[in-house]
């Protein structure tokens, strides 16, 4: 079968318009066909280190390796790519590629080792540990948020019986893998210091997913195209990586995050990633929810994360649930005349619109320009007024991460 890779590129590389050509100076495969799963027998204990230096956390659900991109004198472009196929898990799961500075004393690594816990947050949100900075702790910075499709590769039809699941009639087949690629040049300063690059998938099956992760760095060939000195600061990350709760905080109150800039900032930009999950058919996954983002009491963005193009990902979702829907339709008969009749059409779970994502899509960041900011303390407020609380197995929650970049 012809393999058509889903390739999503977000934001052009941050190099000047005249630098149409640049050289690849670093191309590193961080993980190659790595199985990410939940298997207590294969990965006992909270954390383990493998022979090649890979850390495994959460019984196989999180893997990390050290990386350090070379520094460049000219303008550069960094990208991360992820290739994924199901290793037997048939469901859609949230996934994240992220980084943690090696010098950071408190992180999910220290928590997994049992040496230093997450800081204790204020009592009003005491159960949501590790979602923003406190003391020596800072949340992980995401490089790429993605959503696994339903069973890509493992459940791709191979015989005449399973091919009956190829729906709808216009679909010529399912794919063997899915791949995403994103520009992460804005986070390059952190990647150029020694850091842990992590890959996490919220799977709870022993089969899990087979994944590969690649980091690429390209440098401009144009003389005088100097690299811009920029800074990166993590602000918030509500993903439940390890030892954390699914965050339904926004159903109860806004989240205020305080951050400090050591010097006056130029061209400050907040990058904001949000996806809604849980709650079954009427929950946050399937209900549009407006996000209101403010800095120092001034609203800087108001938007609703919502995807209406999920049907275009059907070829990556062979194990999705499929239903029949009957309706009246006008059509052309074999004799060329027009008629109206009752027809049955298929609709898949993977076709349904969702809160900022589709099964098989990535979740690109929203860029919020702030302009100039003074040195000193500032406050980011995130409000999702119509978010719904978790209720039993209705695990409504929002996965939100944000960071600020400035010159």
Structure description:
The chain is mainly beta and 407 residues long. The chain is built from 2 helices and 20 strands. It has a single domain, classed as Peptide-N-glycosidase F, N-terminal domain (Jelly Rolls, Sandwich). The chain has helices spanning 108-113, 188-191, and strands at 22-36, 47-49, 55-57, 62-67, 76-86, 94-101, 141-147, 178-183, 195-201, 209-220, 231-237, 255-261, 265-277, 291-295, 298-303, 322-332, 338-348, 366-373, 376-383, 397-406. It is globular and about 75 Å long. It starts with 21 loop residues before the first strand and ends with a strand.
How is this structure best summarized?
By secondary structure, this protein is mostly beta strands. It has 2 helices and 20 strands.
With helices defined by DSSP (H or I, 4 residues minimum), what is the helix count? Answer: 2
CATH topology: Jelly Rolls
Radius of gyration: 22 Å
Element string (H = helix, E = strand): EEEEEEHEEHEEEEEEEEEEEE
The CATH homologous superfamily is termed Peptide-N-glycosidase F, N-terminal domain
Major sheet size, sense and barrel closure: 6 strands, antiparallel
Number of strands: 20
Query: Spans of 5+ residues with little confidence (pLDDT < 50)?
Result: 1-12, 14-19
- Terminal CA distance reads 48 Å
Strand order within the widest beta sheet: 2-3-4-9-6-7
Shape: globular
Question: Which architecture does the CATH hierarchy give at level 2?
Answer: Sandwich
* Integer count of domains: 1
CATH class: Mainly Beta
Which range does the strand content fall in? 35-45%
């Amino acid at each position: 079968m012809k393999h058509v890779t889903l390739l999503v590129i977000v934001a052009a590389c941050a190099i000047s318009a005249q630098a149409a050509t640049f050289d690849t100076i670093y191309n590193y495969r961080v993980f190659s066909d790595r199985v990410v799963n939940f298997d207590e027998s294969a990965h006992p204990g909270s954390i383990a280190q493998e022979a090649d230096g890979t850390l495994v956390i959460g019984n196989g659900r999180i893997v990390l390796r050290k990386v350090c991109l070379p520094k460049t004198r000219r303008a550069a472009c960094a990208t991360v790519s992820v290739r994924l196929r199901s290793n037997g898990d048939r469901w859609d799961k949230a996934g994240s590629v992220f980084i943690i500075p090696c010098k950071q004393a408190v992180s999910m690594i220290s928590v997994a080792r049992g040496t230093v816990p997450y800081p204790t947050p204020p009592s009003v949100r005491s159960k949501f540990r590790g979602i923003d900075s406190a003391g020596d702790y800072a949340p992980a910075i995401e490089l790429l948020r993605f959503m696994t499709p339903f069973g890509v590769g493992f459940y791709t039809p191979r015989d005449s019986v399973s091919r009956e699941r190829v729906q709808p009639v216009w679909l010529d087949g399912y794919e063997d893998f899915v791949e995403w690629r994103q520009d992460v040049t804005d986070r390059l300063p952190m990647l150029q210091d020694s850091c842990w690059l992590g890959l996490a998938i919220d799977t709870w099956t022993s089969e899990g997913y087979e994944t590969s992760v690649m980091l690429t760095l390209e440098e401009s060939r144009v003389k005088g195209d100097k690299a811009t000195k920029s800074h990166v600061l993590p602000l918030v990350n509500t993903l439940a990586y390890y030892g954390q709760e699914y965050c339904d905080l926004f159903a109860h109150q806004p989240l205020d995050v305080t951050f400090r800039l050591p010097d006056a900032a130029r061209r400050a930009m907040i990058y904001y990633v949000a996806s809604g999950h849980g709650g079954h058919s009427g929950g946050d996954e399937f209900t549009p929810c407006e996000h209101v983002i403010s800095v120092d009491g001034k609203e800087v963005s108001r938007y609703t994360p919502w995807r209406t193009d999920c049907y275009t990902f059907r070829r990556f979702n062979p194990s999705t649930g499929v239903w029949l829907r009957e309706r009246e339709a006008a059509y052309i008969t074999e004799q060329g005349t027009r008629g109206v009749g009752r027809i049955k059409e298929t609709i898949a779970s993977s076709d349904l619109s969702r809160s900022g994502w589709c099964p098989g899509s990535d979740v690109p960041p929203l860029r919020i320009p702030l302009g100039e900011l003074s040195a000193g303390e500032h406050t980011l407020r995130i409000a999702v007024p119509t978010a719904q609380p978790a209720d039993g197995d209705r695990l409504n929650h929002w996965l939100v991460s944000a960071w600020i970049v400035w010159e």
